[in-house]
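Sorry to interrupt, but I need a hand with the structure work. Can you supply me with one protein entry, sequence and fold together? No commentary is needed, just the two lines. Leave the record below and I will have a look.
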Amino acid sequence: MSPHTQPTAVLAWLVSRAAGIVALVLITLSVVLGLMMAAGVLRRPGVRRAAVGLHEHVAIVAIVAIAVHGLALLGDTWLKPGWMGISVPFTLSYRPG
């Protein structure tokens, strides 16, 4: 097996992309739940209370996934984003120099 096809050679890339996709799905779910609560779709008291708890938990896990996504990017040997590249939007070039 060549070094380019071994998963460990691109582990940071795989973890970063997986965490980014998970974060995107969780943020979407959190926003949808928030909109449903704001629109009054979830009116029953027990359902509303459960939805608020789920909304909060999903949002917190999404923030953790975003942090994992950014930190995993630091290990990407091709992109080499640095702290500025992962913390300030649009400062990272997609064509590394």
About this structure: The mean pLDDT is 89. Residues 11-39 form the longest helix (29 residues). The helical segments are 11-39, 45-73, 82-87. The CA atoms of residues 18 and 66 lie 10 Å apart.
